[in-house]
UniProtKB/TrEMBL annotation:
<protein>
    <submittedName>
        <fullName>SDR family oxidoreductase</fullName>
    </submittedName>
</protein>
<dbReference type="InterPro" id="IPR002347">
    <property type="entry name" value="SDR_fam"/>
</dbReference>
<comment type="similarity">
    <text>Belongs to the short-chain dehydrogenases/reductases (SDR) family.</text>
</comment>
<dbReference type="Pfam" id="PF13561">
    <property type="entry name" value="adh_short_C2"/>
</dbReference>
<dbReference type="InterPro" id="IPR036291">
    <property type="entry name" value="NAD(P)-bd_dom_sf"/>
</dbReference>
<keyword id="KW-0560">Oxidoreductase</keyword>
Amino acid sequence: MVGNALREKVAIIGGGEKNLGGLLSRTFAEDGAKVVVHYHNDKSAAEETVQDIEGTGGHAVAVQGDLTQIADVRRLFDTAVDTYGGADIAVNTTGMVLRKPILETTEEEYDRMFAINSKAGFFFIQEAGRRLNDRGRIISIGTSLLAAFTDGYSTYAGGKSPLEHFTRAAAKEFADRGISVNVVAPGPMDTPFFYPQETPERVEFHQSQAMGNQLTHIDDVAPVIKFLATEGWWFTGQTMFPNGGYTTR
Ligand SMILES: NC(=O)c1ccc[n+]([C@@H]2O[C@H](COP(=O)([O-])OP(=O)(O)OC[C@H]3O[C@@H](n4cnc5c(N)ncnc54)[C@H](OP(=O)(O)O)[C@@H]3O)[C@@H](O)[C@H]2O)c1
């Protein structure tokens, strides 16, 4: 059943095929948006997400891209323009995590982490600023580690932290077109992204630090992003830290 909160809107979701991005693609489509579902490696997840959206009367198109390549970032926005005539909302959920001590981190790992977490984040915001319609919405996904004092995540938290500065600058620079720009920085989320670099003891520790002794769920975070894309249009240049875990789940 397609609603109408986002009727006539076009949303581009970077990493929109699975997990948080997959839920956003479905949620935005349920509210009437036409969705460009970006994916990197997982074509079958993207196809399934598009099929699910179309199966409930919505509109979606999948597009592959390595967003560390600026040409691929541009192709995402080209797809929105060519398929749906423009774009109103751009959410970048892409990212890569590494938990490793500074003394063991290689140059190759540093470059890989900063390419996806910083460079791709910057050029996604740049292209959105160029291509979104007036009163557009740009949302990047950070991490609650942006507000943490911890070890092991130097290139992940460090790679994501420029998003806050890119966002504040873009919020000022795009304000005359009514475009809002924000970061949503979730706590540890219960997706396959989270577990490979953690031990069972650390998972338990992260749960113990959250409300309700549980990890954040993607459905705790998606409503915050939807809010920023709809009624929350007046928030700009901000970082929001939804940690969830306080639901009746
Ligand atoms: N799960 C957590 O604990 C947690 C907590 C806080 C914040 N976050 C952030 O939330 C966002 C979504 O995470 P998630 O848990 O939903 O996991 P996810 O689905 O694995 O999200 C990461 C996405 O980034 C894509 N990606 C990686 N390298 C890319 C590249 N070079 N070009 C284009 N896309 C690329 C991945 O595609 P492939 O898998 O195909 O490479 C995937 O779609 C991420 O930015 C993450 O940093 C996650």
